[in-house]
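Q: Can I borrow your eye for a moment on a structure tokenisation matter? Would you mind producing a protein record, from residues through to fold? Write it directly below this note and I will take it from there.
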Amino acid sequence: MYYLKLAATNIRTNKSTSYPFLGSMIFLVMLNLLMQIIVNNDGMEAMPNGETLRNMFILGNVVIVLFSIIFAFYTNGFLMKSRQQELGLYNVLGMDKKNIGWLLFVENLLNMLIALLIGMTIGGAFSKFLFLVLQKITGFGGGFDFQLKAEMLLITAAITVGIFVLLYGYNTIKLARINPIDLLHGSKAGEKEPKTHWIVSILSFVCLGTGYYLSLSITSPTEGLPIFFLAIVLVIIGTYLLLIAASVTILKFLRNRERVYYRPKAFVNIAGMIYRMRQNGTGLASICILSTMVLVTISSTAGLFVGLEEGVRDRNPVDVKITSQLPDDQLETLVTELAEEHPVEVEEIFHLQGTSMFPQMKQIENQFTAATEQDFLQQQSQGMTREGGMAEIELIPLSAYQSVTGNEEQLAADEVMVFVRSGELPYDEITIGGQTFTIKAKLDSLPFSERTTQESIIGGEYIFIASDQQTIQQVIEGVNQDNQYTQATFGNLLMMNISGAREERLNFTEDLLAQVDVMNQETSNQQLPNENRNYLSVQSIDDDRATTQALNGGLLFLGLVFSLTFIIATALILYYKQISEGYEDAYRFEVMQKVGMSHKEVRQTIHSQILMVFLFPVVLAVIHLLFALPTIKKILLMFGLNNDEFFNMVTIFAVAIFGLCYLLVYWQTSRVYFGIVRRQG
């Protein structure tokens, strides 16, 4: 009972340090509870890309748990450092290390219970709110409802208990090894001038330079992921070495330059910054890494979500596209009847008979050949790059083109017209499947397609208009010759643009897909031109939009959770640093005034040093982001975000917003700093 009262008193009396620690632990409980509520929700599997989303959140949950452990140790380290004098005083008053250990155990237990009680109470209510946000931004259905089950609470409690056990074990081991006299004077122990480490300083720039080079050298987003991970590790190591050792080395180098050092402002600032960077290097490096994570996460996830509609429109030039291997006059009737039932209005309809269905082709300049199995495997291992070497082509007979457009253009057997949807085709002749054609005209538009404003993730997309079906048949035979991996065939396209309420359009698409499944089952025993494909296949913009919104919305939500986590962690580190700086600068504040500096001059000097110290990590984080952007863009290309200009704008906006939040947090925490300096000085 005695230890309990003493522990409660200590928490209340040391509120400037114990309350922020409690706040950070409550925040970690809330964060882990939120992740458990999402990961273990029964409705996750019923969502579009549910398994992918679950795996994504499971990975995010692992990251959050690891972050919780690291951040708990950081805040605990600050708390214990500020309490060293207090614990030393207990020892002088007669408490041995065993008694102090019991006191720490009771305090640890009390902090854990408070964190669990408040964290789970607030976390449950806050998770309910965020769940509604998640449903809103992802378009998840009613099956993905808020659930708070006992297993979620137990797992969160287990994670929290595990963290506190680790903290108590660490504190106990540290207490057993420390001298009681060191405890009494630990918080005010003077610090020796940091040494110059030229080798470590050079190593920091080597790590940063190598990491930057590796990031810029990546050409394939999938094959280059291990290299990108290595680059991230090198940049993290380089950041810590730079801020811990290289910064001190550079400042001491400047101190040895008489023309630079022996000036009133430079003299005080350089001398003060040497100690500040030595004391704060680890914390500042952590701020820099966290800031980089925030910037990368916000810009990537926000870019994906905001650019969702543009990507969907780019992939779907028409609202509905049905491909059939054989002519089927019943398709148009089926579609129009389904449209009337929902109701959905068919605004435009295009029926192209005798078009070609080509596999993805390999393009070398103006030569198009069928991609082999090796080409596809190479494509999968290298990822979908802008350079590609692959292309998608369609051949449409002139008669189908004329029926849709009303154009009376005539073509010879060795002539084609081309519409370049993406990529470039600066040639007067092309060869497809061994057949060479002269490009008679390059079309600016087609009623059922349009030039994309984004760079294609595959290379080039081309629609060729040939003279007749016989010519297309010869091309198909040439493509299929000596190629058993994928076969080109004739096909028929039914394309339409529709209008109506979002819910009705989705219902229409769902019924259409169901009807197509039935027809594919009915024709499964028939002899088809291509036995490796279904009789019918459907591409719907509404289905694509719903699937993409679910995936990108989940990424955005996870990005928001991570960003909020890292921002709060950054704010807490800033707060701890300002308190630590305040107590350490109080004595310097007094000495500077005694040697003749005015109160205003001292305040300006210390303020400029603090501002430089805390702005440097953000500037370095922006530099890290700039070198990571090329690889990030390649990765986002696989998710359909291939508009560089748009992504650059989102990134600039993210940097501006984060910079504003960072300065706001600094301004608030600096008030605490100057309050301590004035009170102590």
Summary: Residues 187-191, 383-388 have pLDDT under 50 and may be disordered. The chain has 20 helices and eleven strands. The longest strand covers residues 345-357. The CA atoms of residues 222 and 262 lie 54 Å apart.
